[in-house]
Specification:
Strand content: 15-25%
Radius of gyration: 16 Å
Number of strands: 5
Shape: globular
Amino acid sequence: MMENFIESAEHIYLCCGVTDFRKQIDSLCVLVTEKLKLDPYSGTCVFIFCNRKRNGLKVLRFEDNGFILAHKKLLNVDKMKFQWPKDEDAVKDITFDQIKWLLQGLNVKQKKALRKFRINKNDIVY
């Protein structure tokens, strides 16, 4: 479900470090504007935040005439956690494949993931 909410975005930004989950839409918009220097009103961008325990995500997105704020919290089965980047002041623009990995509990930097490859027929040597 969370993937459907994010899928059509041109930019998916991870707001690295810890976010206080008492913050709601207005406070998260201020955080995006002042700390990340990005525009929260861009409907093509999604902003993802993680809590201190790394068991919850908030996703903020502007749509037409208002904001949507989605929240995902992992169950405490086997102490599951998201593999969240710890860079306090960083923001990462990631791909949709990377967000799928994150939601599955994997690191967004998969060393063995296959990269997309494009080739032109003129580049082929026989």
